[in-house]
Amino acid sequence: VAALESKLREHKLFGSADEAQLFTSYQHKVETQDQLKDVRRKIADAQSAVQLDELKCRKRVLRRLGYTTAEDVITMKGRVACEITSGDELLLTELMFHGVFNDLTTEQTVSLLSCFVFQERSNNEPPQLQDDLAAPLRIMQESARKIAQTSNECKLQINEEEYVESFKPELMDVVNAWCRGAKFSQICRMTDVFEGSLIRAFRRLEELLRQMCQAAKAIGNVDLENKFADGIVKIKRDIIFAASLYL
Questions:
Q1: CA distances to 70, 96, 147 from 74, in Å
Q2: Under DSSP, is residue 68 helix (H, G, I), strand (E, B) or coil?
Q3: Cross-strand pairs, 68
Q4: Which of 23, 34, 35, 231 could form a disulfide with 110 if both were Cys (CB 3.0 to 4.6 A apart)?
Q5: Could you count the other beta carbons within 10 Å of the beta carbon of residue 204?
Q6: What pLDDT does 143 receive?
Q7: What is the distance between the alpha carbons of residues 107 and 180, in angstroms, rounded to a whole number?
Q8: How far apart are CA 124 and CA 17, in angstroms?
Q9: Using CA atoms, how far apart are residues 37 and 135, in angstroms rounded to an integer?
Q10: Longest dimension (CA), the chain
Q11: Dist CA 137 CA 121 (whole Å)
């Protein structure tokens, strides 16, 4: 104790005229830090409440669309959606359960799925698609609008136009040409998208097709499963899926 008292007396602030003022300032600093911790805790609590409200809204959307029951038990539709992670699982599942893919050719199916994997901006105007591609695109956009409207009705705020426009059709004609045997140099001339971006999009498309195969298998639709598998065969060729671009 005597040693500590000695050190205390040796400190330059001991007996200083500013000692009281400095002590008051330090006490204010400690109180401010405590207030800051309290505010941060309240912010965290508020964010948790917001996330809880959003979770309730999302569960309401899933029940409304038939992915879960009123008791929050996952339905067959929900199990199919769980198989899809490389694209918008709700919209893809809606298209599958409404039989949209059943009436499409393999080329049309793969072209439509390209809207779910291509996310980059293109400087060109939206392509003028032929009727065999424009019709499925319209159906997909209508389904997207219904999902957005349902979400908004369930208090899960979604900008309808932004949601619909997030599915980009810029590569539909490119993918269609590739499925029909076009060369890589030919499809590159059809778009201003960089070659590397094209390759990345096709590889993501192949991954999505594999997941769609599993989703079709989950509902026992063999014809649809074979259609998605055939789509993989049609796109998985040439330089796009080479092990190295330097070969």
A1: 10, 17, 18
A2: strand
A3: 74
A4: 231
A5: 18
A6: 96
A7: 7
A8: 75
A9: 57
A10: 95
A11: 18
